[in-house]
Amino acid sequence: MTQKDITFVADFLTEHFNEAPELYNRKGKYFNVERVGQYLKDEDDDLVSPPNTEGNQWFNFLKNSTHLKESPLLFPYYPEKSLHFVKRQMEGIIDQCLLKPADVIGRSVHQAVCLSLYKISQSEDSTPQLFKLPFLWNDKTSNIHYVLFTILENSISKIHILRRHTDTSRSVSNGILAVEFGNILNNSINESSDSRCYSCLDAHFYDDETVTVVLKENVEQEGKERVLAQLPLS
Description:
By secondary structure, this protein is an alpha+beta fold. It has 2 domains: 106 residues, no CATH class; 88 residues, no CATH class. The protein contains 4 helices and 7 strands. The strands form 2 sheets. A 4-stranded antiparallel sheet has the order 1-2-3-4, with no helix packed on it. Strands 5-6-7 form a 3-stranded antiparallel sheet, with no helix packed on it.
């Protein structure tokens, strides 16, 4: 170590670990701890070296404001506590604020319809992920919810469209349907039905009337063709 290093350490110890007689009656607190680390301790004890708020513009502003001083909208300040203590206090208040909305929303949600999409063997150790690409869209003009998804085991060349009216008491025609791409992009009817078969990589609503899909050619070779297609819902 250089003399400069020794001086730096000595200055640090002198500044932060001086004896503090006023703390002798507190077990294990006979000196000032490092001022940053004390804020990060996960404990409810008071800080050994609380910050000096004298001259702080925000505290002076609150002190001189009749309306803000006792406002319930301001989170209380604990100058003697660590950040962990303040975090727990804030989490408790947030949880309390969310209890009523969670209860009201929870009681307002109910099952409108149950659709069986696929069945799997109960004996399998791990359930395969068959439901893919769920994308939600809300058509505010027609008040209809849409869900786009694919089912891997059923057919990778199909994309399913589920739609429900936002008013659960009403129904819409063709509540669920599937669009199969297959070989619809073949240049002629003479091409083999298996020569250019496509599956859906991704699908999103472009707007209320159009669905954008990314298709890939189902061939095991380099340079497989990708197609970006826009399909009208009509």
